[in-house]
Amino acid sequence: MEWVDENHIKGEMSDEEFMEKVEEIAKTRDIHKQGRDGMINVYEEYFEYKNVPYIIKILRYYQIGVPLSEIRGMNDLAKYAVLEYPPEMKEIAEFFDSSLISELTGVHEFLWRDTLHAGQEHWTLKRMVEQMHTEARECIDELPKLKETIQMKFQTIIQKLDKLLFAT
């Protein structure tokens, strides 16, 4: 990721491209059903940490019919960073997010975070991205412990099932 300044990434969709995209959306959008606002992915990049892939995206808020200079989002920039798992991690992420495993491990939304929380409204984009990297590393660093927790619980269940099924 190459930074132009604290709030812009090299390769990020320009203001002009962004407004063109908003105009395209406006042509087909049913405003009565879908409303006038939404988010556009203006940048994304794949990363790896300890051989585990993750994605950081920059989403930008829009309002149909509102000039760019007047768009107010949920923070000072009207854009924010998100952490997502890539397609190749979907099965693992969904496994951790399943209610049984989530309850067992305490993991909720594995490799799935954003910077739309109280106290983050005035952050620079660079700080948001750094936070998403930190949260990705924390998720990934937990994997060995999570694996051990799941293995121990499943071994206990399998032993109990074996006693029931093979009792003589």
SSE string, helix = H, strand = E? EEHHEEEHHEHH
Mean pLDDT score, rounded?
A: 91
Distance between the termini: 63 Å
- How many helices does DSSP assign? 6
Note the beta-strand portion.
Answer: 15-25%
Please state the structural category: alpha+beta
Whole-number total of structural domains: 1
Q: What radius of gyration results from the CA coordinates?
A: 21 Å
Largest sheet: 4 strands, antiparallel
Counting DSSP E segments of at least 2 residues, the number of strands comes to 6
Oligomer classification: single chain
Strand order of the largest sheet: 3-4-5-6
Q: What best-fitting shape do the alpha-carbon axes yield?
A: elongated
Q: Low-confidence runs (pLDDT<50, min 5 residues)?
A: none
Share of residues in helices: 40-55%
What does this structure look like?
This protein is an alpha+beta fold. It has one domain (3-165). 43% of the residues lie in helices and 23% in strands. The chain contains six helices and six strands. It has helices spanning 15-28, 31-34, 90-97, 99-105, 125-141, 143-165; strands at 3-5, 8-9, 37-49, 52-63, 79-84, 113-114. The strands form two sheets. Strands 3-4-5-6 form a four-stranded antiparallel sheet. Strands 1-2 form a two-stranded antiparallel ribbon. The longest helix is centred in the C-terminal third of the chain and has 23 residues, at 143-165.
